[in-house]
Amino acid sequence: xxxxxxxxxxxxxxxxxxxxxxxxxxxxxxxxxxxxxxxxxxxxxxxxxxxxxxxxxxxxxxxxxxxxxxxxxxxxxxxxxxxxxxxxxxxxxxxxxxxxxxxxxxxxxxxxxxxxxxxxxxxxxxxxxxxxxxxxxxxxxxxxxxxxxxxxxxxxxxxxxxxxxxxxxxxxxxxxxxxxxxxxxxxxxxxxxxxxxxxxxxxxxxxxxxxxxxxxxxxxxxxxxxxxxxxxxxxxxxxxxxxxxxxxxxxxxxxxxxxxxxxxxxxxxxxxxxxxxxxxxxxxxxxxxxxxxxxxxxxxxxxxxxxxxxxxxxxxxxxxxxxxxxxxxxxxxxxxxxxxxxxxxxxxx
Length: 349
Known about the structure:
- The chain has 14 helices and 6 strands.
- By secondary structure, the chain is mainly alpha-helical.
- It has 3 domains: about 35-115, Dna Ligase, domain 1 (2-Layer Sandwich), CATH 3.30.1490.480; about 115-195, no CATH class; about 200-345, no CATH class.
- Strand 5 and strand 6 form a beta hairpin.
- Helix 1 (about 1-35) crosses helix 3 (about 70-80).
């Protein structure tokens, strides 16, 4: 009897040891799943993009390609336990080095994105602007072109296909990467409306211009000069011509109309181009801007210099500055010197 009891105790003890060992092994396995470092190799933070509509398979592919998980099975288990596998949140995320699966899933599940510093800079056309946005945010250029042309609020805000560019101001803006094309447009309108303070609106009205006309004129001034200290003077020339009912005769508008931005010398034949942007043949401002002028050039139009000049011509020293004139005879002398300098440098087009 005592012998059987000893045998029973021995078997029970062995079973208990086995259960404890198995339990410990399972526990260690799940502990490793949760808390073992997931980053496979390279140190430092990494940025990942999770596309809208992604499932767990697409996410795992992304994490593996960026070497952010070592054990796919372990990550999937943690994601399932935390119910993240059925609730993937799109966006742009910064993943610090050395995160474990638990911390990684918590980060991605939180939806706490790393914002994009969206740089809006000089472009000439809407397709270029759409591509600029698409390179920095999730929607593609076709989605941006669609909202530029078809968004229901574009007309409500007073824009059309040729003036919508005047809504965009060059600057750096903080965005979430997965912001929709429509959401991006609405955010940019808020920035536009914030920019046009009562003071700026009053200055525009004093010049006899509205917001879109100020922007359009600023784009011409910017095409004429990259010298900030000269922008207000050139703006004054164009305003003088507008007030005197004279054609602007702005060479950059001809280049824009022809769509050939390699032109360095405008010829008489260019002045015949049939386009509403031809300011030699059409009185007043063109229907829309020819580029995206910096804010300083918009303010240069609003604070245009007051003078009697109605002509200007690039200086013959190619410094980027201009000679100004109040009379045609004086302008012709300036232009002759510049043409001579072009010929000497063999710039014929």
